[in-house]
Amino acid sequence: xxxxxxxxxxxxxxxxxGEFVAVKAIPHEAITISATVIREGHDPFGAxxxxxxxxxxxxxxNAMKEVWPGTDRFETVLTPPISGDFxxxxxxxxxxxxxxxxxESDRFPIRADxxxxxxGSWYEFFPRxxxxxxxxxxxxxxxxxxxxxxxxxxxxxxxxxxxxxxGIDHRKGPNNSLTAGxxxxxxxxxxxxxxxxxxxxxxDLGTMDDFESFVKVAKKxxxxxxxxxxxxxxxNHPWVKTHVEWFSKRxxxxxxxxxxxxxxxxxxxxxxxxxDYQGLLNEILRIIRLWISKGVTLFRVDNPHTKPVHxxxxxxxxxxxxxxxIIFLAEAFTKPAMMHALxxxxxxQSYTYFTxxxxxxxxxxxxxxxxxxxxxxxxxxxxxxxxxxxxxHLQSGNPAMFALRAVLASTLSPxxxxxxxxxxxxxxxxxEGGEEYADSEKYQIRIRDWDGAAKKGITLAPFITQLNGIxxxxxxxxxxxxxxxxxxGSDAIxxxxxxxxxxxxxxxxxxxxxxxxxxxxxxxxxxLGISEDSFTATDLLDGSTFSWSSxxxxxLDPSRPSGKVAHIAHVKLA
Length: 574
Fold this sequence. Notes:
Blueprint: E1 7-11, E2 14-16, E3 19-21, E4 23-25, E5 31-37, E6 45-52, E7 58-63, E8 65-66, E9 73-78, E10 84-94, E11 103-104, E12 108-112, E13 120-124, H1 140-144, H2 147-152, E14 157-160, H3 208-220, E15 224-229, E16 232-233, H4 238-242, E17 258-260, E18 263-265, E19 269-270, H5 277-293, E20 298-302, H6 309-322, E21 327-331, H7 336-345, E22 349-351, H8 360-373, E23 380-383, H9 399-412, E24 415-419, H10 450-456, H11 461-473, E25 483-488, E26 493-500, E27 503-510, E28 517-522, H12 525-528, E29 534-539, E30 545-549, E31 551-556, E32 566-572
Helix pairs in contact: 5-6, 9-11
């Protein structure tokens, strides 16, 4: 029902599944609140945005201002002070002391998750490869020795592919071959064997005690562990015998294997959530609770878009009530509507299309989408590569391309990730025109000489360390909604800024990894909060200091050994 002073088009508000679901936030993150407020006649009126805690107590009230005279569009900022559940509403009123015409809008939920839900640097490795030699595979014990190096690069989260027993039937061989040899380790996502299922450890990696020790070493090094939650099985999983109703059958009675056209997964059975929904829900909750008890604080969920959305809404709501610190990342390279629905259903963040966005126009469009259009319900995690995806632009092996993509991922998004080997410029493709790695680590163990690469200087690790250090030191890079793109005279150079209070970061990137490019960057000084036409910028990558202005000439040359692919500049504000 329309109030005495109508308040309409309130943002952010997310209507999903027949109710308003929580707007995503973290403590101290500024949330822009806006609405259209109108009143008959010409008498003046005002509007406030009000933040309330879970119990309904008012904890913050900020006056709203008209965005542009005559538009009747008002906005202000609210900032949740701590993690937890909140609500906001808008109050409109006449400007007499009595506020006789006070009108309040509906109250809309906001959920402030812990910082890691928005901010994090993720690193992925296969424990069976870390510490592996020609004679033996890696284990949790050998992989633990790699953890200090991962932490030293500035990563916050270590993501592990599934660490459960791997099936034997239809086990895949090297490069996804349908025939595996006796020594081939199998695909970790083909979960389940004689040693157990989703609640067990692959004996080749060690024991449950070994896993718990690995988690403790990670925490000592400042790393949180993200476990892969892959809700599928091998033909040898215990569920295949004990709960055959959890699987889909063909007309001949056999269980159907998984397909994601054009890919076929002969070694994997998908689950069917329609025959015994409550039974599956209870079992998966049991599994999640088990790994939480072992020290896991994040879950990277494999292919969540192939499961019912309402299942995730149920799971995530229950786990939030029990363990609100737990974070879920959706590995959902699928259609936008499904990716967005998963965010609205409760996923804290998601993989994105960044991996394939390469041109200036694509980056600007997608950056604006995730930072402005969808940020209320969809938090991005920008991955430069994954074990499944070797993007075409990396297949030349040009180190400058690896560097510039890392700059983009780590500064455009508060969360970014990379899969091991990226820092060694691994780039051999299985097939021309495809995006799969040759000798993919999904199907076999990969032995890497980290120390040898460092001694020869054939590693991007020092640069990655710099990027993560810069991110950690500057809160502006730990926010999503503050991304602003600035005009440049060249399609080969993209420029953007991030500003939070007095912390201002300017980023200029040469998207051409081969040749020097130059242009004039036209900074929007109002967006930067700079009143003078000139200012001093310090490049955080090499310490250089520049005198820049609203129209700044930039030249970036990646072709020389000491060349630059980007400026990441800090500007001190008064």
